[in-house]
Amino acid sequence: MPVLAHLSDIHLGQDHDGDAGARAAARAERVMTYLEQLPGPIDAVLVTGDIADHGLAAEYAEAARILASDRHPVLACPGNHDDRAAFRRDLLGEEASTGPVDRLHELPRLTVLLCDSGIPGRNEGAFGDDTLAWLDAALSRARRDVPAVVAFHHPPVALHSPIPDGIRLRDEQRLAAVVRCHPQVKAVFCGHAHTGAVTRFAGLPLAVAPGVVSTGTLPWEGGSGLAFDHPPMIAFHVLDDDGRLTTHHRVVV
Ligand SMILES: [Fe+2]
Ligand SMILES: [Fe+2]
């Protein structure tokens, strides 16, 4: 059974009370240390965007150091705070270019499709024509007998959390139409909302990662919409042999 760790929204470089990003880096390091020290193996670590707070080269250099692992593949996609060219050059070590960062990872027991749901210069998201066509083609070529999951930053449905709901994925029905054509897709994973949430999309389970740098608060919890006094949290996703998803949430102390 494939097991994934899922973290999101580490926002490296985010200034908190004048700390120049020290708090964000320390929280991301805590999470990665926790995963590095797990007694048992996992298949991969997913990081669903907002890796750098300002899309700066130095923030990606820090991300490359913090997210590096000798134990598991660490698979990342960009979010609305990320910069495609710097993400490619300074995190992935590739040629800088501004096209969408879409990646297929064929792990031994799982196919992971990481998609770029960003719109440069905007906080809301959408699958552009290039990314939708890439996803459809990648799923058509991918192994049919191995389960697949699709991960990206912007949740494609409302989560009843007003701030992220206002900047969620647009035109989600176009994505749903593609995903529905490929029955090996068993789950969809997102970030952006900084709140561990489970719902459904395109007939599939959709799990939103909790935030590492902060936690999105819900209307009935009060506050300004983001809480900085919650600990970092992550999710573990387990896919049964019959394709059923189980998600566990963990506070990282
Ligand atoms: Fe974020
Ligand atoms: Fe975001």
Automatic annotation (TrEMBL):
Protein name: Metallophosphoesterase
Taxonomic path: Bacteria, Bacillati, Actinomycetota, Actinomycetes, Kitasatosporales
Pfam families named in the record: Metallophos (PF00149)
Keywords on record: Hydrolase, Iron, Metal-binding
Keyword Lyase: no
Domain Calcineurin-like phosphoesterase: 4-195
Annotated InterPro entries: Calcineurin-like_PHP (IPR004843), CNP_phosphodiesterase-III (IPR050884), Metallo-depent_PP-like (IPR029052)
Keyword Disulfide bond tagged: no
Family, per entry: Belongs to the cyclic nucleotide phosphodiesterase class-III family.
